[in-house]
Write a structure and sequence with these properties.
456 residues; alpha+beta; Aspartate Aminotransferase, domain 2; Aspartate Aminotransferase, domain 1; 3 domains; seven-stranded mixed β-sheet; six-stranded antiparallel β-sheet; 13 helices; 19 strands; 30% helix; binds pyridoxal-5'-phosphate
Length: 456
Amino acid sequence: MALQPKPHIADIQPVTHGGINFCGTAGGEERIAAPFGLAMTRVTKDGPAMKGLKGADSGEERIAAPFGLAMTRVKKDGPAMTGLKGADSDEERIAAPFGLAMTRVKGARKRAHLKERPYIRTDCIDILDFSTCCNPYGPPPSVSKALAKANIALYPDPDCREFINLLSDKIGAAKENLIATNGSTELLRLAALAYTGHGDTVVIPSPTYGEYELASQIAAATVAKYQMKERAGFRFAAGDFISFAQKHSPAAIFICNPNNPTGQYLGFSDIRKIVSSFPDTLVVLDEAYVSFTLDAWDSLELLHYPNILIVRSMTKDFALAGLRLGYGIASREIINILKKIRPPWNVNSAAQQAGIAALNSPGHLKKCNALINKGKDYLIAQLGSLGYRVLPTDANFSLVRVGKAATFQSRLLDRGFLVRDCSSFGLPAYIRIAPRRMQDCLKLIAAIKSVRGEVK
Ligand SMILES: Cc1ncc(COP(=O)(O)O)c(C=O)c1O
């Protein structure tokens, strides 16, 4: 019999992280969204995208464009600029200068495929991305200089000592209580692998960040979800949650604070109650967005509990998403276990240097947070006055009830704006929006006004 993965691994479905894709591609291609319902093609198979540019139909020629993208030159059937043959049945080729063509993918089929291939790169095309919740003002300027210092010819320090020493000074935790990871997502996986497995149950509130469930499934654990009710505004009630969790004797509990996507932020006493109620359970407290929370309490005060793992990300607040950097704070015992199973050199040299520069620029975040909050307040007020239900939030993003979220997202994408369709959180009537610069927030509201009548 051919080699088979473990059954629990074969059954796992990847988490949908937002974004959107366009259909109508040949094998080995990927359509990239561009404004106004247009798409460019990324040639993914048959070697590097910029060489060969396979995948064009006969009578077409793919032309390299920056970032691994390709445009199509239509060669056959008359002059290139008329007719524009070669599109699939529900596509339309649009003339572009120099005999090139872009593809418009028509309504039904484009939207039908949204769930299947849910990712786009928004860095190489002209789309305003309100779907990711990173600092829209970018990393501190010192980060680019720091990147130049990274020696990529050498293996990075596997213990990230310079970064960890500085982090220890900045947040006031001993370095033995710290671990750096390749984004906080890696840490979530390490925690699940180290502390849960076959026969164990992991308790997770819902809706929340999908990676907790995936990490638990990878570890072969069973997930029990504590459902937060829409009619109660998705409120997390700690007492109720504890009673639910007690029925499952969980090996681990994941709590996102503030919660993605609801924005609810639990207080110190709620978290302490949970941590102290389950002394034999690993309680993972994910604070990926806590830097954006006004008047956040200090979770390090819970560090004397031997069963808490605080998870933080530097990809959101310091806008290092492309570099991947996160860290964990926990008892020495937990940290030592996580270090045993982390991949060697898990944090690359550039991320280590960028992290050091970011920690040395605390003023940047303060300045950005003031602007981010203005954008957030503006969006909340405008959406409210347009009649949308916006959930109260203590994070840098808002959950908004719009009716059919997939359609709403698609209509906005046609106008060059990307918002997060929350269907993958089990919330098909909601989108999540994180503010960008004020001038972009103004444009988004104008676009929402123009799609409002189209989506119920
Ligand atoms: C709640 C939460 N935790 C963790 C992460 C992962 O962040 P990263 O791996 O970039 O640190 C995300 C990313 O969206 C998130 O929403």
